[in-house]
Amino acid sequence: MSSEKESEDSYLKRIKQLRPEQLKQAEESFKRLLDYKTVAYLKSCVNCGLCADSCHYYLASKEFEAIPAYKLKLLSSVFRSFLKRPGRSAKRPKDDNTFDTRMVERWVDSLFGRCSLCGRCTLNCPLGINLTSMIRLSRTILASIDLVPPDLQSTVITAVEKGNNMGIPRVDWLSTLQWLSEELQIEVGDPDAHLPVDKMNAKLLYTVNPREPKFFPLSLLATAKIFYAAKENWTVASDYYDVTNYGFFSGDDVVAGLISSRLRESMARLRAKTLILGECGHGYNSNRWEAPEWLTSVDKFEVRSIIQVMADYIRQGRIKLDRSLNQKLVTLHDPCNLVRLGGIIEEQRYVLRNAVSNFIEMSPNRVQNFCCGGGGGQLSMTRFAKRRLEAGKIKAEQISKTGAQIVVAPCHNCIDQISELNREYKLGVEVKTISEIVADALVIEKKK
Questions:
Q1: Would you give the DSSP letter of residue 363?
Q2: CA quadruple 360, 364, 366, 369: dihedral positive or negative?
Q3: Most buried residue, 101, 250, 427, 447, by most Cβ within 10 Å?
Q4: Taking Cα atoms as reference points, which of 249, 9, 21, 314 lies closest to residue 117?
């Protein structure tokens, strides 16, 4: 891993000074990643251009480098440049296809700088090419020679070295939980209410985005209030509680597997029954669907989203909600990794219809939703911040057309991005998690 404090200038200098053996190492990494499916994707694109209108980066900028097919061509042209056919000598690669420093610069600019790995291009490709997986594969190749953009890599390093991506010390985490327990007792009028830590044999082990204890502690309090109302047997871990996984964004499968394995360690240590993933889009996708691939193992426990849990509570009558307590017009943003790539689509809508008086959908929605622009590690890569906000104009226009006063986003990356869009495009909306909305509608009979 590169230095956590590396500047952008030194990063660009490293690219320009790449040695031939490093470029060769990247090519060898590429070849190891090839299988029949990947080769088929690399050779199948017919440049129809239909993916262009699926990409919020292209729709906002109209730049050729933002078209998903162009991003695939960056990868496929290098593949063809060193491909050897049986019985023939390898063709000498053309200058514009050679994997050299200029090509690496183009890869970083488009594959990191113009993509949030949202998956919308894949969904709309008429040939079924998994463009998202190909772009991530390109990031994996760059990661193999330590060329992940430094701000994104810094987040990965922090998660590995500190146990969570915000670098929160254990004592601060425990102190925050104690403070939130005191707040919960006041909220529900019960001196015995608390946020349990390291409780053995709990039914649910709840994991959080570290941004909650760091910047949005009331969001964590809202979830605790819901668990209290449902009389749930739950706990959080004192260590390894981070639902996020920025190795998923950097393309480093080894590190991504390590980060996801730590949640499994907490499950084993506490002998919990079900792993519950907090409101984090990529946290759900990486830990529910990708982790078994990275770890080459099958989980012996259930992995669920907190949204599914809240929906079950409502269906089973374990919590009582009063929709009249949420009168403002609410709309829902569909996080790409939760909905399009994760499969959690209707549960959040069921919850909201039971928790608010006025709900309106964006258009398009569900699997055809537009990315807000906060995924793919974009929030951590400051050098691409201007592009990120420009591409987010598509989402800002969606929000504005609904006339909603509150935008619910069940993902903290999405909340951060939409909050920035709120300021940038003067939307004048509130941005909340689903847990916060549900907690606002909870009817709890306080203990005397």
A1: S
A2: negative
A3: 250
A4: 249
Q: What is the DSSP letter of 334?
A: -
Asked if pLDDT for residue 89 goes beyond 60, the answer is no
Asked if 281 and 335 count as a contact pair (C-beta separation under 8 A), the reply is yes
Residue type, 42: L
Q: Compute the distance between CA of residue 440 and CA of residue 435 in angstroms, rounded to an integer.
A: 9
Give, for 381, the enclosing helix (H) or strand (E): none
**H or E stretch at 358:** strand 358-360
Enter the tokens of residue 426: 């003067």
Domains and CATH numbers, the chain: 8-147 (1.10.1060), 158-315 (no CATH), 323-441 (3.40.50)
* Cis peptide preceding 364, ω within 30 of 0: yes
| Mean pLDDT along residues 324-336 | 98
Q: Give CA separation, 251 vs 70, 125, 296, in Å.
A: 19, 22, 17
CB contact at 8 A, 389 and 395: no
Q: What is the pLDDT of residues 24-48, one digit of tens each?
A: 999 999 999 999 999 999 999 998 8
Among 230, 189, 220, which Cα is nearest to 433's? 220
Q: What is the pLDDT of residues 376-401, one digit of tens each?
A: 999 999 999 999 999 999 999 999 99
Of 110, 164, 129, 122, which Cα lies nearest the Cα of 371?
122
Q: What is the secondary structure of 123-191 as a DSSP string? A: HH-TT---HHHHHHHHHHHHHHTT-S-HHHHHHHHHHHHHSSTT---HHHHHHHHHHHHHHHHHHHT-T
Using one digit for the tens of pLDDT, what is the confidence trace for 260-301? 999 999 999 999 999 999 999 999 999 999 999 999 999 999
